[in-house]
Design a protein that fits this description.
185 residues, alpha+beta, Pnp Oxidase, Chain A, 2 domains, eight-stranded antiparallel β-sheet, 41% helix, globular
């Protein structure tokens, strides 16, 4: 019986070592942005890790920050879990995997989006900003260490939108400057 526990313990140690190596590799890739590994990382995130994270988040009722956007080519709706900071100006999301990520290209093509943050969904308008603008919107300091550690060049400000009634029964979108929350995810 004790050999079963030893094998299980060895398996767990191997798994933890593998996860540590993957984490270290991911940090190096995001920090130095070599083109081929970054592209591979984006594919792994988009096709494997993001769907798994979304399922785990739903299953265990985790508080995950998610950007809901529309595909620029397919028109399909996507939900992407992202590192996000909430500010009085809206939400700021770093493009840590570089400016060619699919979610960023989709937001550049169609700025209308939604953000789920602290289990509330907010309609938003996306605007690509640089690091200095993001720091200014975040109150003078980077909202997250990854902004500077990963040498992020582009970030997205997602400004909340409120619906107001327009003329002849239509609606008109307006941005609001009301603070959403000051916590970060």
């Amino acid at each position: 019986m004790s050999s079963v526990f030893k094998k299980a313990g060895l398996g767990l140690a191997v798994l933890m070592s593998l996860l540590a190596a993957l984490s270290t590799g991911m940090v190096l890739i995001l920090r130095y942005q070599p083109k081929t590994p970054v592209n591979a990382t984006r594919k792994v995130f988009g096709r494997v890790l993001n769907p798994v994270w979304m399922r785990l988040s739903d299953r265990f009722n985790l508080d995950t920050a998610v950007v809901h956007h529309v595909g620029r080519k397919s028109g399909r709706e996507y939900a992407t879990p992202l590192c996000m900071v909430s500010t009085p100006e809206g939400f700021i999301v770093p493009a840590a995997c570089g400016p060619n990520t699919d979610w960023l290209a989709n937001l550049k093509a169609t700025a209308e989006s939604k953000v789920t943050y602290n289990r509330a969904t907010h309609p938003t308008i996306a605007e690509v900003i640089d690091l200095q603008q993001a720091i200014r919107y975040a109150g003078g300091t980077p909202g997250c260490d990854c902004w500077t550690q990963f040498r992020v060049k582009e970030l997205v400000r997602l400004r909340p939108v409120t619906q107001t009634s327009g003329h002849a029964g239509g609606t008109e979108a307006q941005t609001t400057s009301e603070p959403i929350t000051t916590a970060s995810t």
